[in-house]
Amino acid sequence: MLTEPEALDLVLSRITPLPSERVPTTTALGRFASETMLASLPLPGFDNSQVDGYALRAEEAPKGAELPVVAEQPAGPDLQLELPPSSSIRIFTGAPIPRGANAVIMQEDVTRVGHSITINDPVSAGENVRRLGSDLCAGQILVRSGQRLGPAHIGLLASQGIDHAPVHRLPAISVLSTGDELIAPGLPLKTGQLYNSNGPMLVAMLANEGLHGATAHHCPDQLDATISCLSSLAAESDVIIVSGGVSVGDHDHIKPALNALGLEPELWRVKVKPGKPFLFVHRIEPRPLYIFGLPGNPVSAFVTFHLFVKPALLKLIGASETKPAMAPATLTHEISNDGGRPHYVRGRWNRGQFHPTGLQQSYALFGLSQCNALLRVPEHTSLASGSTCEVHLLH
Fold it and tell me: What does the pLDDT read at residue 196?
């Protein structure tokens, strides 16, 4: 049985990022750049005014000076104005600086009467002037390969006139829930039945990572049906995430079905709690396919998704960094793990403190819904209240 670091290393070693595609920059939010992009234009592209006011020479505008207003430069096309000695030009935010001017005084700092202004608060040379290339130089890196594109990146690329961005293709993902006892939410519930919570939860977790459009499927606890379902999904998916049926019970058919399809798991069982029965399959031909088998208990499925599936999917869609966000924390309660496997305790991290939330059993969905962090407690270890640690942030 592998440790969770060994299992993750094995999984990541099999993942190859999906090919690149070019998409409209306006739709690239959350995608990962497939190449490093460089600036072709400086920002700003010309000296311009930072405020509405008057362009002038700072040395000609001491307090009390009176200067005529000889022209006006609005934002937009450069009127190629030139500032005469001892005068000013009315200017607006973003407008090109007239030749000869070295400062812009805010309109609030002058008194205007007719076609002249009186200086109430003098300015220094360079004040309120945005210089050519002061934000960005031509040839400077805009976005590195493997970087996730956020809203500001979209604006930055658009400022360069880039209307299509190179990003890694998104995978086609199928989520398969197994179990005769499961029915879809909204249907009448009979004795012995459970509403399928893992399927909707996993689809939502994928969407939370920017992987929208995953399809949800359900399969009964029958070997033939499981073989048929997996065969169909394998033909149309890049990734299949299976929930339940990966253990060794009489009604757990995922491993036999995979074997019948010639898909041999490379990994089965991990030394971790919750989530020991975790399965991974990598197929190369006829096209790459990755199958993750998660335990049927919702907390186990949730934890193994964060430990193994999320990093693998991040690498698949081109992320240069797949490690989770970590934060220092002080424990508000003593937390003990008497078992022989590391235990990922679900809890809430707030202002540097961590406390467990609700029941820590693998079926306890309500406590899971209150958590925003995981704490790894090594086997046979007790952590005292007030001790410091690092927690794995989920959001």
Answer: 92
134 to 92, 129, 343: CA distances (angstroms): 19, 10, 51
Question: pLDDT tens for residues 98-143?
Answer: 999 999 999 999 999 999 999 999 999 999 999 999 999 999 999 9
Q: Is the pTM of this model over 0.85?
A: yes
In CATH terms, 26-41+136-168 corresponds, of 3.40.50.300, 3.10.20.310, 1.10.540.10, 3.90.105.10, to 3.90.105.10
Backbone region of residue 71 per phi and psi (left: phi > 0; alpha: psi in -120 to 50; beta: other values): beta
pLDDT in tens, 3-52: 999 999 999 999 999 999 999 999 999 999 999 999 999 999 999 999 99
Cα angle 238, 241, 345; round to 5 = 135
Q: Indicate whether 248 pLDDT > 70.
A: no
Number of helical (H) and strand (E) elements in the chain, helices listed first = 8, 29
Assigned CATH class of 2-18+170-316 = alpha beta
The 3-state secondary structure of 252-289 reads CCHHHHHHHCCCCCCEECEECECCCCCEEEEECCCCCE
